[in-house]
Specification:
The protein is of the alpha/beta class and about 200 residues long. It has one domain (about 20-200): Rossmann fold. Helix content is about 45%, strand content about 15%. It is built from eight helices and five strands, in the order H-E-H-E-H-H-E-H-E-H-H-E-H. The chain has helices at about 20-25, 40-55, 65-70, 80-100, 115-125, 135-145, 150-155, 185-200, and strands spanning about 30-35, 60-65, 105, 130-135, 175-180. A five-stranded parallel beta sheet has the order 2-3-1-4-5, sandwiched between helices. Helix 2 (about 40-55) packs across helix 8 (about 185-200) and helix 4 (about 80-100) packs parallel to helix 5. The longest helix is centred in the middle third of the chain and has 20 residues, at about 80-100.
């Protein structure tokens, strides 16, 4: 961890604490880290889950790969170093929302175990719920609404996870969603049932 420069003085200890925010929101904060290949259904499931949580009166924030790369991480590419920095920034943003009592849904390929462990270490193991959206590569290619797999196959897109760059499945995720033959709503409901006991305040 990079040391805080001497001229920077964080004020977190003087602000209202996470417990105060959670009491106001009547929920416990958590970070749902959804990993899987491009086209596996992460964002679609997250959108459905956000609606379900909102209907149940939970405060939820969705951080999605395309939206983040269009904004705060627009200066990053897809090299190993840039992927690592992309996830580091996302994890720090997720942690800020977590500390304010939010349920944060993160939808990122985050292709390696090391890069996801980096996120876990920033967010905190007790609040980091790793969800593997397990969809076979051929199914992801069939969906390919962005045309990225076709471009990766021809070499037009470089360093594309699953084709020219590796994806390391989580060895022991908190939850595995096997999406073949499962609608996004049904997958989101599985995730909701797993999540609700963990965000319920005692």
């Amino acid at each position: 961890m990079t040391p805080v420069p001497q001229h920077i003085h964080p004020v977190a200890n003087h602000l209202l604490q996470r417990s105060d925010k959670e009491a106001l929101l009547a929920q416990r904060g958590a970070v749902v880290w959804m990993t899987g290949l491009s086209g596996s259904g992460k964002s679609t499931i997250a959108i459905a889950l956000e609606k379900q949580l909102h209907a149940a009166r939970h405060y939820v924030v969705v951080l999605d790969g395309d939206n983040v790369r269009a904004g705060i991480n627009s200066n990053l590419g897809f090299s190993d170093a840039d992927r690592t920095e992309n996830i580091r920034r996302i994890a720090e943003v997720a942690k800020l929302f977590l500390q304010n009592g939010a349920v944060v849904i993160c939808c990122f390929v985050s292709p390696t175990i090391a890069i996801r462990e980096q996120a876990r270490s920033i967010i905190g193991a007790n609040d980091f719920l790793e969800v593997f959206v397990d969809t076979p590569l051929d199914e992801c290619e069939r969906r390919d609404v962005k045309g990225l797999y076709a471009k990766a196959r021809t070499g037009e897109v470089k360093d594309f996870t699953g084709i020219s760059a590796p994806f390391e499945p989580p060895p022991s995720p908190a939850l595995r969603l096997t999406t073949t033959g499962l609608t996004a709503e049904a997958a989101a409901d599985q995730l909701l049932q797993y999540l609700l006991p963990r965000i319920k305040r005692n």
